[in-house]
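Hi support team,

I've been running sequence recovery on a batch of backbones for a student project. Most finish fine, but this one hangs at about 90% for roughly twenty minutes before it completes. I'm not sure whether the input is malformed or the queue is just slow. I've pasted the structure tokens below so you can try to reproduce it. Let me know if you need the job ID as well.

Thanks,
M.K.
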């Protein structure tokens, strides 16, 4: 969301060519882009962002309409620490591949 989903997906073919198919974009990205979700730049991506005119104190919040768009149902609530741990584990796996 921060860089722009549309911008981020432009690097995917380069990554796939250089590093292999594990860097291929999931099919869900096509649906997200077709729905006009570009991230922070247009206020809508995986999160919803308050517009400039709205209160600055309001923070981004997850856009739950994505579940319908992608045809998925969340199975349970994950603690923020669990989400962070999973992200770190993915980075550690990539670091191990570099060795």
């Amino acid at each position: 969301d921060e860089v722009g989903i549309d911008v981020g997906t432009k690097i995917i073919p380069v990554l796939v060519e250089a590093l292999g198919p594990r860097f291929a974009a999931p099919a869900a990205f096509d649906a997200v882009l077709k729905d006009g979700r570009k991230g922070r730049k247009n206020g809508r991506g995986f999160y919803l962002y308050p517009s400039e005119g709205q209160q600055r104190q309001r923070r981004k919040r997850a856009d739950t309409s994505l579940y319908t768009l992608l045809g998925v149902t969340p199975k349970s609530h994950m603690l923020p620490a669990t989400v962070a741990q999973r992200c770190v584990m993915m980075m550690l796996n990539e670091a191990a591949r570099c060795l």
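--
Follow-up from support: It reproduced on our side and the slowdown came from queue contention, not your input. The longest helix spans residues 80-98. No action needed from you.
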